[in-house]
Amino acid sequence: MPVIQVSHLSKQFRDIHAVDDLSFTVNEADIYGFLGQNGAGKSTTIRMLLTLIAPSAGGIELFGMDLRTHRKEILRQVGAVIERPDLYKYLSGLENLSLFAKMSGLHTSRAQLMEQLERVGLSDRAKSRVKTYSQGMKQRLGIAIALVHDPQLIILDEPTNGLDPQGIADMRNLILHLSRHLNKTVLVSSHLLSEIEQIASRMLIIDKGRKVAEGTVQEMLDPAKTVVEVQVLHVAESVEKIKKSAWGASLQQVRTESIVLQLHRDQVTQLNRDLVMMGVAVTGLQPRNSLEDYFLSLTGTNQHVAAFTN
Amino acid sequence: MWQLLQIELFKIFRKPRTYISFVAIAAMVIIVQIALKFDGRSYVEFILGSLKDSLEIPYDTILNGYFVCFVILNLLLIHIPLLIALVAGDSVAGEANMGTLRLLVTKPVSRTQLMLAKFMATVLYTALLLLWMAFLALLLSVLLFGVNDIIVARNDVLEVIKSNDVLWRYIAAFAYATVALTTVAALAFLLSVFAENSIGPIVSTISIVIVFTILSEMQIPLYDRTVKPWLFTSHMLAWKGFFYTQTDSTHTSIPGSIENLPAILRSFGILMGYIVLFVGSAIVAFKKKDILS
Amino acid sequence: MIKTIITGWLLVLVGAPAFTYAQDATLLVQQVRTKLDKVNDYEAAGVMKTDVSFMKVPAADVKVYFRKPGKLKIKNEKGISLVPKGSVSISLNNLLSGKYQVLDGGMDTIAGVPVRIVKLLPLDDNGEVVLSTLYIDPAKLLILRAKTTTRESGTNELEMSYGKYAAYALPDRVVFTFNAQEYKLPKGVTFDYDDGSSKQKPAGETKSQRGKIEIAYSSYTINKGLPDTVFE
Questions:
Q1: What is the pLDDT of residue A210?
Q2: ipTM
């Protein structure tokens, strides 16, 4: 049974489609990477999973239960850190943890709470007001709050934001520990590809609210596979031709001046030949290699970078 | 639910801002008491000035603890709602501003329960504030000025109530005032749902209370018939009705009586209606709200 | 000559009774005064009711202190009573002190009792009282009603009924009617509760209104002496 099942999820804010027909699945013990630029729709999706935002369309099931009708049971099994963890600054770390533990339905003793704080390295600052904490300490407290009720699913939205390299490494180790040793399912969103690359078992890439790719990291990093961006003169006409051809299944993304396809490396030459044969006016063809390239190409960021560097 | 209420009360009473209200009330009450202790006679002369040529005014006995308490309550008409709005307006907007709202809403607690717990905590805060005020305005005044009959100066009637007939009226008045201020709290609570910063709801609430109070007091026939009976501020003053007595055919007031109890009960009903409307609307709005903070 | 004699006798016949009546009125007043003078001082306990349109006052237990010739004090020892100014004239003992010209006003009836109307014009032009009209029961030498016109407070009226202290001319019940100034405070000061009931002032109520104080006396302690402090 998948832990998260999202079907045709959409969210519209006035004229903006923040999330558009998104579907994905997260399995038990997955570390599921949720990648996208800032503003791609990651946080909106996560907020819908956590019932902070109501979807405009589509369905969400967690632990096999409909989120709309089983909200309380589901949320008892979910711990989350959403963006930077904002806490009650006028209360101490211990008081914050105690408060949220109670809200999760727990009756924890002070000793148990101190143990939680010990795990995230905050036991010596337990009684200090959160106002005096550094960003890293607040992040760790946020993690402690997310884990205090021993949830099965942990959702981390940009967990390494504002952390120093040691903090980032600690976060990475924690996520791996949660999955590998405690069999927890972790959904982690980020715009930092290098971090996700190191920990995620599966991932989804989102751009302008739409899924652009989903699969295992292995698939996406398969050296035999590559992503090719083809610059063409007449995009719409070219897309129609490609869809009718054998290359239709390889189509990943349509951009303003180019078309992106995913295929094996040794198929690149054949693709080039077939496009010419189909009458597609190709002006350029660029294979990508690393996941970073892959991600950047899909989201078109390199176009913006090129504008600055050229 | 009890657990949630405890948590909300904990949050309210750990916030330094909460204590501003208690200190402010203490300061205001004591300032008025000091002023009346030194120059209360001037105030009584102001109230009863038009009668000094026809009646012997016993200034010393008029200026007693019960009278001073009434003066204090009258003077603090606008100030107390502001202090209520200070906490009630912060209940949801403050959490949004701090960023803690999104953490709260992801807990296995329904939004309705969360809102009810927050509102009940605000109501308890209001009741405590009134209790504090009762202690200072009534008990302290009685200790400083002693006890005697009370003179209540209405617009065109002077009420004299015997000292042994006053205390129960104050208890009823304070209980009613709690409901009246809960209406203000409910309004601030509702406005708090729509804001990401508590300043907006606080200022809006107090502006509404001021404008409505002015409308309630204006003598314009058009407003008298249409608007005034429905303004909650018109009904907030009903606590004074406990100090208006019935009289017999010779204008002798009847001890233990209330001039128009049905009117007070009607006002109470209207205020309760407003509370249900404001809080109900707040819950409905919050349930539909997308938490983006 | 006969005409002169007849006119003279007619004058005597008409004038003599008038003169006699005037002399009778003065005598009556003197007799009443003598009776009142038996009381040097008293302390009385009573219940006071206030009937003024703009005041709602409960019945109050009061003490009334009097000392000859003109000291009178009404005190509510346990509470507040608003007593009209010029209440000094609530006591008859004050009315008959001083020097005055007595005029006969004829006869009338009060509650079936024939009374002699006597007008007193104070000889002191600077006094507070301008004119007093007394309605005296000549048989019992008791004043049943007194109307007093004063410089400052307009016309007051006293109605008396007597019982066990009639021998001292001390009433069981006194109703004092006086002028009361209008009372009004701005609504912006009082912030009254408007209960929605319309309160129409009766037509004819003018700025200066009549108020009533009624004191029902339960006991008098007479001629036992009173310290000065009770009149403060």
A1: 86
A2: 0.85
